[in-house]
UniProtKB/TrEMBL annotation:
This is Uncharacterized protein.
Length: 234
């Protein structure tokens, strides 16, 4: 099975991931880690994190970083509550494990880092539209395109013929403000020259003295009676 997966370049990749999926992914040998991640996998603290702090997933590392460290100091015998709890688990230097956890997360590319929320402005279908789409699928009618590029389900992230994961997340641009409708006139001119070859010119006309008004010349090999208008529309 592994050979088949390799043969067909099975990869896990997506444009953006939800925070939940980022947290579910294993932190050791993380596919979205930079070169420094290699050193992190087997460091003394990484082993302590695995053995005594029960770290497996990226979310486990995040949970360690986000705990309450009030009164914390960089000492083996730090008296803060969190470090005391960690020492009871068997960790000899909780402050070093905390620093290691931060370094692990810092090794992740932006797309895979659960501390970074991207594409918060990604347009999404409303629940009402999702329901309408469900009905239209059943009725075999056209459905409204869902512009969301966010991966919500881990299984949907697997691709065949894929490449190694790309470090940069996709950033969707903000939807444009609704613009006023504008009427654009398309012109078409066509004639045959003295050799009988087609000559076609299209034109785009917005308004009197509008700088955007322009002719559109059609290459001779593409010229035909309606080619000028088609070129202007394109
Ligand atoms: Zn502490
Ligand atoms: Zn530890």
């Amino acid at each position: 099975m592994l050979q088949t997966a390799r043969k067909f370049k099975l990869t896990f990749d997506t444009l953006t991931l939800s925070k939940d999926i980022k947290e579910e992914l294993p932190i050791y040998f993380h596919m979205g880690g930079n070169r420094d991640m290699g050193q992190r996998n087997n460091s003394k603290c990484a082993k302590c994190l695995r053995d005594f702090h029960e770290v497996q997933a990226t979310g486990d590392v995040l949970a360690i970083v986000e705990r309450d460290y009030q009164g914390h100091s960089r000492r083996h015998n730090c008296a803060c509550r969190t470090c005391r709890e960690d020492r009871l688990r068997g960790c000899s230097a909780p402050y070093l494990c905390l620093e290691e956890a931060i370094k692990m997360l810092d090794c992740l590319y932006e797309k895979w880092d659960p501390r970074i929320e991207v594409n918060q402005r990604t347009p999404r279908l409303t629940e009402e539209w999702k329901q309408k789409n469900t009905n239209t699928i059943e009725a075999d009618d056209p459905v409204l395109f869902d512009p969301s590029i966010h991966l919500e389900n881990r299984v949907d992230g697997f691709r065949i013929f894929g490449e190694a994961c790309k470090p940069t997340p996709a950033h969707q641009i903000e939807p444009l403000e609704e613009e006023e409708e504008e009427t654009i006139y398309i012109g078409n001119s066509h004639r045959l020259d003295s050799d009988g070859d087609n000559l076609s010119v299209g034109s785009i006309w917005y308004n009197q003295d509008d700088k955007r008004n322009m002719p559109v010349t059609v290459p001779r090999e593409l010229a035909s009676p309606d080619a000028g208008a088609a070129a202007a529309i394109l």
